[in-house]
Amino acid sequence: MQEFFDICSEIESTMCLIYRRMAHAVRGNEKLQELMLQLAKDEADHANQVRYARVLPQSESFAGVKIGKSRLELLLLKAQSLLRDLENDPPTEKHALLKAIELEEEFIGVHVGTAVEFKDEKLKERFSMLARDDEKHVGTLRAYFNAFYSPVT
Ligand SMILES: [Fe+2]
Ligand SMILES: [Fe+2]
To answer: What range(s) does the Rubrerythrin diiron-binding domain occupy (predicted)?
Structure first.
């Protein structure tokens, strides 16, 4: 369980770094830069919330995890490799948006809110809010993309 939270918080912090890196790459576009910085802030907050979950009394709070560790590890690797790519080769605005949408969509499926079975209802609500946050991220990114480029299919 704790290992699961470790990988999850690592993914959230990597997402935060990815958005910071993207914000820097699109700094000529103030509106998009602001959007990316807001997303970076949200991901930093997600990482903190997952770290909080890690230190809760595990057997009283959670019943189990619905997804395998390898799937999470794969996603972490993917996020880390995207971060490296962005560092070596700053993306265009279009590329940054597409990559961010792709990663957010994949992550929604393994989010703590959806992947964990909670015993505590309040905790469940708290983490499903976190998952909704990332759904909003996809919505915001898609809306921006559609306004300036052709719609994502
Ligand atoms: Fe997140
Ligand atoms: Fe997100």
So the answer is: 10-51
61 CA from centroid of ligand 2 (Å): 24
Q: Please give the distance, rounded to the nearest whole angstrom, from the Cα atom of residue 32 to the centre of ligand 2.
A: 15
Domain at 24, CATH number: 1.20.1260.10
Burial label, 88 (beta-carbon count in 10 A; 0-12, 13-18, 19+): exposed
Determine the structural domain holding residue 143 and report its residue range.
2-148
Sequential pLDDT tens for the chain (153 residues) = 889 999 999 999 999 999 999 999 999 999 999 999 999 999 999 999 999 999 999 999 999 998 888 999 999 999 999 999 999 999 999 999 999 999 999 988 788 888 899 999 999 999 998 889 999 999 999 999 999 987 655
Ligand nearest to the CA of 39: 2
Going from the Cα of 16 to the center of ligand 2, the distance in angstroms, rounded, reads 8
Minimum-distance ligand to the CA of 136?
2
Number of domains in the chain: 1
